[in-house]
What does this fold into?
Amino acid sequence: MSSTYAIRGNLIFTKTPEKFTVLEHGYLICEDRTILGAFPELPDRYRGMEVTDYGERLIIPGLSDLHLHAPQYGFRGMGHYIPRDGWTTWFDLYAFPEESRYADLDYARRAYTRLADDLLTTTTTRFAMFATLHRPATELLMELLSERGFAGYVGKLNMDRNSLPGYQETTEETIRETILWLNNCQGHFGDIKPIVTPRYTPTSTDTSMEALGKIVEEYRVPVMSHLSEGLNEIEWVKELKPGLSCYGEAYDMYGMFGSVTPTIMAHCVYPNEAELALMSRRNVTVAHCAQCNLSLGNIAPIRTYLEHGIRVGLGTDVAGGDTLELLRHLPFVTDASYARWNLTERQDPMEEPKGLDLPAAFYLASKGGGSFFPQKAGSFEEGFCFDAVVLDDQRLSDEWHSYNPIERLERLTRMGDDREIHAKYINGKKVL
Ligand code: FE
It folds into this structure.
């Protein structure tokens, strides 16, 4: 395939959160890695160009999963009903023991190969993915993802307190291994880049946070972590870092809250006014993980973030969330948003409901999350990365009904799976 070509099908994308743009049997034109434009007809100047015609199939921009844990993929779909005496149980029973196994590079190769292969048959083209403490396994994950043509960030974890024995670094190790890893990444792993990843405040000492902040400044790498996911976690952070106006300050004081490089914070369920104000001033993107939050009885105030002009993308949070398919998380985003309004804001029984609709949720999954990456991603507008996913929903349709592309996309968000992923392009390259 030459570097300039077109694909044709029912194009659906969101320039804004308010509505879908649909081009039935439209043309999407690629030059090198970039979109030249989406057109209802092939413009004269492109006559004779190579066109792959996907017929009645839907074509959407590749989605960005801004929060998932690669080493937790093995226990996805489990652990939601253990006794609710705190996060410790889930960490002790599932997350930490499983993550510990990635010290073994053979195990890591088997497990990460499965993850990377399965991720190919999803709508995700870009991501920000947590790995484990282990530098060799993290580099292997980056290699496997790069070989499959993905783009995005992978983070070697930092944890030098409050983990399990055997799955924790010393402060000296966490700093040394992070520097070594960043050096090893230079010139390697294609479009897979490193991102500095302290797991969250309770698992990083002040000394390691200070050192990581300096590393971020020196290497100019972005940052990701967790923020204000649960009330008990916020209380714990208050004990560990007394006197702060909000949890976010525990990152901000070390230059790891969007003041130096762009930062992703996962969850952000319980911001106080100080945290909202700080996030408005910083380059922080919220990774909204609606399914995971709901399974713990929480709903993040996403409309509030958007009203404050704070950037929001979506995360599957595998394995706090069950499926890698980000499209399947959109109903959680929309339904949770209306539930939050109904339960916390509604004043009057006759009031018009307020919440995120499907175009808004799709926007967050595509252009919202895509805005975290240095190149524009997540839309079919000119100048965006050529990331596209072709969806074949024949399995879900019948010849005696005819639905429009938006209705078909809605059904895919509630009923679709890997069987509907027909083809996939990342940075102009066909990867599936
Ligand atoms: Fe997480």
Observations:
- Residues 105-120 form the longest helix (16 residues).
- The pocket of fe (iii) ion is lined by residues 67, 69, 226, 266, 317, 320 (CB under 6 Å).
- The CA atoms of residues 120 and 192 lie 15 Å apart.
